[in-house]
Amino acid sequence: MNLVYADADGNVFDHPTWIGLGRSGDMVVELMEEELIPLPEGATLVGLPNTRPIGLDPKKGTMAVLPGDVQAVGALMPQGYTRLNIPSYVKTNKDEKFPLFGYTAVVWKDGQFYVAAEATDDPERWNPLNCDRRAVASGVERLTAKYPENRLYKHLSNCALGYECLTSSNTFLQRWEGGVPVSYSCNAGCFGCISEQPDDSGFVAPQTRMNFRPTVEEVVQVMMEQLVTPDAIISFGQGCEGEPSTQAKIIIEAIKEVRSRTSMGYININTNAGITDFMRGIVDAGLDLMRVSTISALDDHYNAYYKPRAYTLKNVEKSLKYATDKGVYTSINYLIFPGVTDREEEIEAMIGFVKRTGLKLIQMRNLNIDPESYLELIPKPQGEIYGMKQMLEIYREELPDVVIGSYTHLPPSKLGSR
């Protein structure tokens, strides 16, 4: 498995003799054959700015920095794939931070690129190649003309056309899972927030957060246009907004109005679930699915990353337990990072959290972050680091009734009744 690197112009090469490596946390590690899969459709190779690649020089039998004016290369994976290692590199300028993406180790083997990853879900619906951009543009034109005063459609059109966001694109294609953002404010200060960053953070937020409060009617219009088939999903809580439950009143009124008109499809919320009272109201209004974002089931790790305002991880747990008990299909959007998520203490804590809350689904989502900044932020490891592949095996063994996936699933028991 040959080291992959890029020159100063971004041209990608494989080294004829050096062996490619990966990283787990801050440790450079050898990649195992069973950890590698061919570079999947929809993945993108990117150069890592201000870096030099680390490989294994077989002549010396040691790990070394590749000399020359070169940079390390990583892969950005499509949904449905869980990375097992990050690229191996050293920064040439430690003050420079990577853009907020999830970087995966990549090597050249048997005449093609391979990545350290595992398919944890069927990527078909979230493959960017399956999104017809001309059809999206046509949908934008049609729905913005139909609802010329609806600010949500104007906002989402930028997400769909400018960022090529698949969820907002689905909103205009009226298929699968579409989004309806509602909140410009948040009750957390996530370190890796993709829609809002402090001026001194060193990160550039890749998306622009919405800057208005929609009316109930605007929300209802988007929901009704999406919920036209039995398996359609409309989701509150998008990357272009803050915490949706801070606008609980709008959400509750919109859900009640929509459900007075149709029972079609599923209503989902992507949330940090920290405001338990608001979450209970949203559940009681007629929520079908709840996906809670978390990075850990340990308080010190969770608090370091999310910086919660006036809530704790215990509030999150209470919200999930309440929703599960009320028949909502509950899941977590688990932000994962090799060398951290696979720590012994993290695994033990998460297994307990899942069992206490009655979660039905764990969505493994690659954390978009600058590795050094993240590792400096969070607690140091306390126990053994198992490796991401073994971690997945442990979850499948310890939680046999919980689905391990990468994105929203529909409850099997309801599919046949709608």
From TrEMBL:
It comes from the Bacteria. Keywords: 4Fe-4S, Iron, Iron-sulfur, Metal-binding, S-adenosyl-L-methionine. Its cofactor is [4Fe-4S] cluster. This is Radical SAM protein. PANTHER family: PYRUVATE FORMATE-LYASE 1-ACTIVATING ENZYME, PYRUVATE FORMATE-LYASE-ACTIVATING ENZYME. Pfam families: Radical_SAM (PF04055). InterPro entries: Aldolase_TIM (IPR013785), Organic_radical-activating (IPR034457), rSAM (IPR007197), rSAM_sf (IPR058240). Signal peptide: none annotated. The keyword S-adenosyl-L-methionine applies. Residues 181-347 form the Radical SAM core domain.
